[in-house]
Amino acid sequence: MRLLICGGAGFIGSHFARIRVREHGDEVIVLDKLTYAGRRENLRDIEGEPGFRFLHGAIEDREAVEEGIAAGGAGRPVDAIVNFAAETHVDRSITDPDAFVRTHCLGTNVLLEAALAHGLRHVQISTDEVYGSIESGTFTEDSPLAPSSPYSASKASADLLVRSYVHTHGLNASICRGSNNYGPNQYPEKLIPLMILNALHGDRLPVYGDGLQVRNWIYVTDFARAAGCVLEQGLPGEVYNAGGPDEEPNIEIVRRIVGQAGAGDELIEHVPDRLGHDRRYSLSSERVRALGWESRVRLEEGLAQTFSWYEENRWWWEPIRSGEYRRYYERQYGRALA
Ligand code: NAD
Ligand code: DAU
To answer: What is the number of other CB atoms lying within 10 angstroms of the CB of residue 118?
Structure first.
């Protein structure tokens, strides 16, 4: 296939791009705005592969999107757009929501218009957070949308735009909703890499509230493969949930990381809770399983691999820790950890 992967320099998008190039021989064009979370380094091992191209641009920029669609060359547009491009951190959406609305609503709309104009397939990468919080049981694709944060509300808006293009214009589009991803190359504002790097440095580990919030963890390559199944086999207008095999309270994740670092529990510091914090997420993935997908990596193995990756790849995160991230960290945690 010839794919335009939007947001392909980010955490999940770069794993998806690598799998498509290496395991499927796809021609891949990555279109990415390179926000603080987007990094060419995430793609450096596939940059030289035949058929791979990187374009620096935003999905809300029509010209950049048109360039991406045409970038495969030979006068033929790409076959499909896979949209990972997003602002992805819930905490930042609480203090600074504008970019979330711009990218998720305006940006997705530009992609949908382009997909329609060129007759392309569109896969929208979405999140379990659009369903809101669930105390017990699991969300299915038919659960109502009840997003809690500006992040999840704008992601849900993007999903509804996709739905409207399918309904109104018959666009060949599907949605893939993932649970909490973890693994190599995740920006260290997110729970697992933040705790790993802090533990490696002997810094305190800021757990929001009581730490008993539960997340449904999925290893990043498992989710990337689920997105691939949806791309290849998903039906137009259909939503596919892809949740991980393990649910765990945050505090248990943090304790596992403390153990892996050989540190002590005294590093753990309970700090004020996130505003509007969702208590639990849980996804049923029966529909994507029916397409032949299975998760392969359990939390214990995946967390150990992730810990080792961060230990061994200082070149990747050292430049992050000294830049914008420092200022963000100070704003987000400075007072609570003072
Ligand atoms: P990330 O923050 O690591 O990467 C996002 C990428 O999108 C970055 O490379 C960034 O530069 C790019 N980007 C942002 N705005 C853009 C714009 N306007 N135009 C072009 N590029 C833009 O995020 P991630 O964790 O890899 O998430 C990827 C997608 O998966 C998102 O849509 C997210 O909502 C979804 N998702 C993430 C998780 C998770 O746990 N990380 C779970 C479920 C779904
Ligand atoms: O569920 C899918 C979503 O998972 C994705 O759509 C989002 O893009 C992704 O960021 C993630 O959202 P969360 O808010 O669940 O992830 P985060 O890593 O920010 O937080 C995970 C849990 O850990 C959450 O309950 C908040 C808590 N937490 C997080 C941080 C950063 C802490 O207790 N302390 C922290 O410092």
So the answer is: 14
- Ligand 2 atom with the shortest distance to the CA of 89: 10
| CA–CA gap between residue 261 and residue 268 (Å, rounded) | 13
CA distance 149 to 155: 10
Q: How far is the CA of 40 from the centre of ligand 2 (A)?
A: 24
pLDDT at 75 over 90: no
Query: H/E element holding 196?
Result: helix 191-201
92 belongs to a structural domain: yes
Residues 45 and 54: their CA atoms lie apart, in Å, by: 13
pLDDT in tens, 230-286: 999 999 999 999 999 999 999 999 999 999 999 999 999 999 999 999 999 999 999
Q: Residue 205 falls within a domain, yes or no?
A: no
Structure tokens at 157: 């808006």
Q: Which CATH number goes with the domain that contains 140? A: 3.40.50.720
Question: Is 261 contained in some domain?
Answer: no
Tell me what pLDDT residue 74 has.
Answer: 73
Lowest mean pLDDT segment, chosen from 30-44, 63-77, 199-213: 63-77
The total of structural domains in the chain comes to 1
Domain span at residue 147? 2-182+220-242
Tell me, yes or no, whether 19 lies in a domain.
Answer: yes
Beta-strand pair 2-6/246-249:
unpaired
> Ligand 1 centre and the CA of 222: distance in Å?
16
Strand order in the sheet with 52-56: 52-56, 27-32, 2-6, 80-83, 121-127, 173-178, 239-242
What DSSP line would sit under 61-116, residue for residue?
A: -HHHHHHHHHTT-TT---SEEEE------HHHHHH--HHHHIIIIIIHHHHHHHHH
Ligand 1, residue 85: give the atom nearest the CA: 7
